[in-house]
């Protein structure tokens, strides 16, 4: 039986989270500052129910955490280093692939 190293599983989980543009936008918004779901929905122009599903995914992946604030719940990155990682990844991707368009991975392969 093949055993997957914990680091590989964590990277795959991060990749799955980044595979959706809305989740990317949420992570980038939370990189700038913690936020409440209603604020995120307004800023991102996403219906609140859809945003809630994406936040649950990111929370289940361990990338964001909830912080109780009275009767409200605030979301923030689980670790400040995730913000730095997002910046580094974004910078690296732009540097190496500015002229590429990624196609649908299921139908045509990826990049």
Automatic annotation (TrEMBL):
Signal peptide (residue range): none
Pfam families: HTH_5 (PF01022)
Occurrences of domain HTH arsR-type (ranges): 3-100
PROSITE patterns for this protein: HTH_ARSR_2
GO molecular function annotations of the record: cadmium ion sensor activity; DNA binding; DNA-binding transcription factor activity; lead ion binding
Keywords (A to Z) from UniProt: Cadmium, DNA-binding, Metal-binding, Transcription, Transcription regulation
GO biological process terms on file: response to cadmium ion; response to lead ion
SUPFAM superfamilies in UniProt: Winged helix' DNA-binding domain
Keyword Iron on entry: no
Xref: CDD domains: HTH_ARSR (cd00090)
Protein purpose: Metal-responsive transcriptional repressor for the cmt operon. Binding of cadmium or lead causes the repressor to dissociate from the DNA.
Subunit structure: Homodimer.
Cited PANTHER family: HTH-TYPE TRANSCRIPTIONAL REGULATOR CMTR, TRANSCRIPTIONAL REGULATOR-RELATED
Protein name, as recorded: HTH-type transcriptional regulator CmtR
Species: Peterkaempfera bronchialis
Source organism phylogeny: Bacteria, Bacillati, Actinomycetota, Actinomycetes, Kitasatosporales
């Amino acid at each position: 039986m093949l055993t997957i190293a914990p680091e590989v599983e964590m990277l795959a989980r991060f990749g799955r989270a980044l595979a959706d543009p809305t989740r990317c936008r949420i992570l980038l918004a939370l990189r700038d500052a913690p936020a409440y779901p209603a604020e995120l929905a307004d800023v991102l122009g996403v219906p609140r129910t859809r945003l809630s599903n994406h936040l649950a995914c990111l929370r289940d992946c361990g990338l964001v955490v909830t912080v109780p604030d009275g009767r409200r719940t605030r979301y923030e990155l689980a670790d400040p280093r995730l913000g730095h990682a997002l910046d580094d990844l974004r910078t690296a991707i732009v540097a190496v692939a500015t002229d590429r368009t990624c196609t649908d991975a299921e139908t045509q392969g990826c990049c």
